[in-house]
Amino acid sequence: MTRTVVDSSLTGPELLNAAAAEVASWPSISPARARQVKWVAGEYTRALAHPEHPLADDARFTQVFTTEPIQAYLRLGRTGELRVRKAADPKAGSDNSEQTRLEVLRLLVTACGAEDYAQLPPQPAPPSKAPVAPRPRSLLRTQLTELADSPDATTSQLRMLAVGAVVSDTGIRAGEMCARTIEDLSPMLEELRAVRRPQGWSESEAFTELLALSGLSRAALKRWLPERQQLLERVGGTATALWVSLHGNHHDGKAVPAGTPLMPRGLARAWTRAVVETNVAMAGEPSWEPLPTRMEQLRRGVKPSAVRAPMMPDAEKASVLLDDVAARGSTLAELRRAGEEGGTAELQARIAVRQAVRDAWAEGIEHTVQLSVLAEAGLTGDASLAAAGWEPVLLAAIDRSQGRGRPSKAAAAV
Predict the structure, then answer these.
(1) Quick one: which H or E segment has residue 155?
(2) Of the candidates 295, 64, 34, which has an alpha carbon nearest to the alpha carbon of residue 163?
(3) N or C: which end of the chain has fewer CB within 10 A?
(4) What is the DSSP string of 201-265?
(5) What are the tens digits of pLDDT across the range 246-302?
(6) Using CA atoms, how far apart are residues 365 and 315, in angstroms rounded to an integer?
(7) pLDDT tens digits for range 19-78
(8) pLDDT digits (tens, 9 = 90+) for 363-401
(9) d(C-alpha 188, C-alpha 69), whole Å
(10) How far is the first Cα of the chain from the last one, in angstroms, to the nearest whole number?
């Protein structure tokens, strides 16, 4: 991706503000990161006016990112000298703040085209956090399994059952979880696609993984997806987010219905409530230690089974894979029409088409494209598609994402 470099004639605060605006305009920059960029640019602007900083407002892009000015800025920031509001303990520096400053400075260097002049210190390793011990993790999975078997589980419990099971399998972050859509679920709910972005990532460092899901996660998703379908009743247009809100809310003075995409902060709050309930329920159990109320610590103990996948499908390979789906789908359809359902040949054909469907999904081919190919091959209806490896609850979610399959008003009134 080609990016614009800010005007090299700018100096001091104008240079930093222009660089911050450029970074914030990049599609890969989240609103949270944009706020951090604005914060660092503001801090460095105040540093240039500080008597202990070696540069002034006329500093050029060839100077502001060199060793002595950067070390002076970091020292002033670490000791609280650049705060707009005075803290209770101004000299109490934060390792996380230092790490954020360095991450943002690297982005500003790119925006200024100053890579040949920059002399930034190495990025410190993030502080380690204790993972959840095996015993409490095992008890958590037992608790989730019991919830999966409970016919009286609430919608809130079913959502958190699915979230907890998926995090326990994959170890993905809250932001990565909230970015998942139904396209990221494999047809048989055996894998989840996730775009991973390492801490302090640049756009070129993002990568896609296919993460294996356990039987518990599959069972949890089978219970969550129908609940999700009901929550989408009032949501207009397409609805693709895997995790959605349970209740209506307000945003910028406008009513937001239930069923809208769940944001990382909302997911974190919901997880905390569920863990508190679990800790209360498990209190007194042998060897039980309360689970951390943050998903961050839970996921750090996970070693997922994962394979790399392409960020975007390769057109030539996708064509070959779809031809394979079509051929194997036609074979299965012919056997079913001939009344050989359940026979050895039909069972072998099921295995073959399921592998073809999975391979096409792994390449990144959309569900609707595959379903269209299978329909042309003669596989239509939930029973035939289930034989080809598609979970019915996922098929309903796919229909809803296309604006079809909405719960009827009559059904909702019952």
Answers:
(1) helix 155-170
(2) 295
(3) C
(4) --GGG-EEEEEE--HHHHHHHHHHHHHHHHHGGG--S---BSSB-SS-EEETTEEE-TTSBPPHH
(5) 887 766 667 778 888 888 888 888 778 776 776 776 666 665 566 667 777 767 767
(6) 10
(7) 999 999 988 788 888 899 999 999 999 999 999 999 999 999 999 999 999 999 999 998
(8) 999 999 999 999 999 999 899 999 999 999 999 999 998
(9) 56
(10) 52
pLDDT digits (tens, 9 = 90+) for 321-345: 999 999 999 999 999 999 888 899 9
The separation between CA 52 and the C-alpha centre of its own chain, rounded to angstroms, equals 42
Amino acid at 94: S
Query: Contact, 411 vs 362, CB < 8 A?
Result: no
- Phi first, then psi, for residue 259 (nearest 5°) are 95, 0
β 306-309/254-256 pair status: unpaired
Backbone torsions φ then ψ of 263, nearest 5 degrees? -95, 160
Give residue for tokens 């993002």: 206
d(CA 243, CA 64): 43
Q: Which two tokens stand for residue 254?
A: 């406008």
> Angle formed by the axes of helices 392-401 and 215-231, to 10°?
40
Can you give the pTM of this predicted structure? 0.66
Count each helix (H run) and each strand (E run) in the chain, helices first.
16, 5
How many angstroms separate the CA atoms of 155 and 231, rounded?
10
Q: Is the pLDDT of residue 186 over 90?
A: yes
* Structure tokens given for 77: 């920031």
> 3-class DSSP state for residue 181?
strand
Strands 249-251 and 254-256, how do they pair? Answer: antiparallel
The residues, ordered by sequence, that sit 6+ positions from 2 with a Cβ below 8 Å of its Cβ are none
Task: Compute φ and ψ for 314, nearest 5 degrees.
Answer: -85, 125
Q: What percent of the chain has pLDDT over 90?
A: 50
353, two tokens = 């088409």
Q: Which residues pair with 185 in a beta bridge?
A: 192
